[in-house]
Amino acid sequence: MSLRGKLKRERALQRKRRRVAAPAVTVAFQRLKAIADKGIIAFCKEALEFEPTEYQIAFLEETAQFQAQCWCRQSGKDYTASSKLFWFAVKNDGSQLGIVGPSHKQSKLVIRRINNFIQNKLPKDILWPEIVVGRKTLRTKVQLVNGSVIEAYACNPDTIRGPTLNGILGTEFNFVKDDEEMYDAILFTLGTTNGFFIANSTPWSRDHIFYKIMNDKDYDDYKRFHVTWKEALEPKGPLKKNILAKIQRQFASDPWRWQREMEAEWAEDEDCWLPISLITGCIDAQLEIKEFDRQHSFWAEELGSPPG
Questions:
Q1: Could you say which DSSP state residue 199 is in?
Q2: In this structure, are residues 75 and 81 in contact, taking their beta carbons and an 8 Å threshold?
């Protein structure tokens, strides 16, 4: 078969796939949708067994088109963002949502969390295989029977430009390489749908679009949420006191790390040989970075074994 014939056949197959009827909405999904229609807080409590705290409720109920979470570690940052995406997908039939992060692996962690909601948190009268397409969960996307899709994309601006999306979550966005190009791609992707964008991260580099989002007046159209360990500490948040004590001891010799990860404030380590922005710029999102000793030595796994 000639190349022209193959292309013609492929286009015909694509048209046929698009004509395939969407899976029928099941009774189980209708029950889940009824909970979602009560509002996002009711959805978290009744469908996900999740009791949001005061600062989490403020974020969950926010409806601004552009939102930013600069939250400390162990504050429920990704948990609340995942809950918000899942609720939106259930409530809005046919919605298309995307997730981008420092690596494809990082983006897939959000999918894993949503799959955990589906498989382990739903009420007993909502059988999870009946709410997802094909009666099974996937590693890179969540496909619901109402036509909604939540998909994890690779850390590459080109992958996010093509799809038409109703909303995007930028997880650990301060660690994303080529941030300006990625941000432009996100804005153009949402341009035709007037969709929403949520950027969340703990602080890392000031030379990054996420720092501008949280601090620059040009980005005042963002609804900003800043949470430190003080707000996240039990009983006001999920951070356990015994865990906080251990973190304080471990970070005693590294106050800059404590400031970034627990105070959720930007700080440059004065003893650091290379600036954070330079380190971030050298990261290849396609490689898996691993630490192999207590001196924080690293190597890229695909390039071979660590030295010595």
A1: E
A2: no
The model's pTM is: 0.81
Q: Residue length, the chain? A: 308
Dump the DSSP string for 65-118.
Answer: SEEEEEE-TTS-HHHHHHHHHHHHHHHSTT-EEEEE-SSHHHHHHHHHHHHHII
Cβ atoms of 237 and 76 within 8 Å: the answer is: yes
Residue 21: the pLDDT is: 46
Q: Which domains does the chain have, with CATH numbers?
A: 20-266 (3.40.50.300)
pLDDT digits (tens, 9 = 90+) for 72-123: 999 999 999 999 999 999 999 999 999 999 999 999 999 999 999 999 999 9
Distance, CA of 115 to CA of 142 (rounded, Å):
7
The structure tokens listed for 125 are 């009268």
CA 277 distance to own-chain centroid: 22
3-state secondary structure at position 198: strand
Q: What is the pLDDT of residues 243-278, one digit of tens each?
A: 999 999 999 989 999 999 999 999 875 555 555 555
Alpha helices (H) in 145-240, listed in sequence order:
157-161, 179-190, 209-215, 229-232
What DSSP element (H or E) covers 170? strand 167-170
Question: What are the C-alpha distances in Å from 135 to residues 27, 98, 120?
Answer: 14, 21, 15
Identity at 44, one-letter amino acid code: C
pLDDT above 70 covers a percentage of the chain that reads: 79
